[in-house]
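Subject: Sanity check before I submit

Could someone independently write out the structure tokens for this chain? I want to compare against mine line by line before I put it in a report. The sequence has 279 residues.
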Amino acid sequence: MGVHEIKVYTGYMGQSYLNHEQAPNAYLPRPRFVFHVTPGSVAAGGYVEPYPAQKIPAAEISLAGADVSITPVQGPVQTRAVLRGSGFPAKAPVSVIWGTHAGSRVSGNGFAPKEQDLARLIVGPDGRLDAPLQIPEDLGGMHTLTIRSGDKTLARTFFATESSVVSISPTSGPPGTPVTIHLKGVGWTDFDNIYVATYDNAYMGYACGFNSQGDVIVNFTAAGSPGTHLIDFYPGIYQGPATDQQLYRLPQLTYADDHPGNKIPALRFAFEVTSSPKR
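---
Independent answer below. Compare away.
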């Protein structure tokens, strides 16, 4: 509690430049703010900030007169959705194919698109489809749902899988307590395949979801004095051009305004550090 000073430094590669008065860009401002922390409490646990609406591409139609859509168009894994379509061959058997990616940027084996059967349906006598679907556990980000008759693609629509919090466990304990955070639906592109973690605003590291198909488990040790401690997972950029400012694998505090690629929110957690047992 009390007065806390916040300084915004200029710098390079995500690091603060201390003798800025002697820098060639000393004319740049270095704002300072004061924040008053007041008494209060935060419930232990975790949550996802409100998810921005994703930019969903228009359906791709290969069969003249056909149409296809899915409702809702975004949500976490295991979302119950409804696939609707019209203009398909009456009483024809069709397959719904889920499109994703699989692989790794680190192993050297690369990555590639991957498809899996999600459902097999029979078109109604009026050429319509109306089928409930459950979004599979998979990577976050954009996925395709393709309507196929044999090897022929008839139509394709899109669904955006959101990152979600499964759990933080435990939510309290003395210093030294092992803590696990479990996420699902973490993405695969360079813009959304990592979350960068801070503990009480101090950098912890980053977690990647591509190699584990979006299922992320982060283990760490609780530390600090008794009271509430905040763990934040921020969007970041995994990698990019090795020129100019390389702000990679760092928390992007302006994520809500200008994070590239998919618009993903921060994840917020609180852990209650209790007193160590007396010996």
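---
OP: Matches mine. For the report I'm noting this point. Residues 1-40 form one domain.
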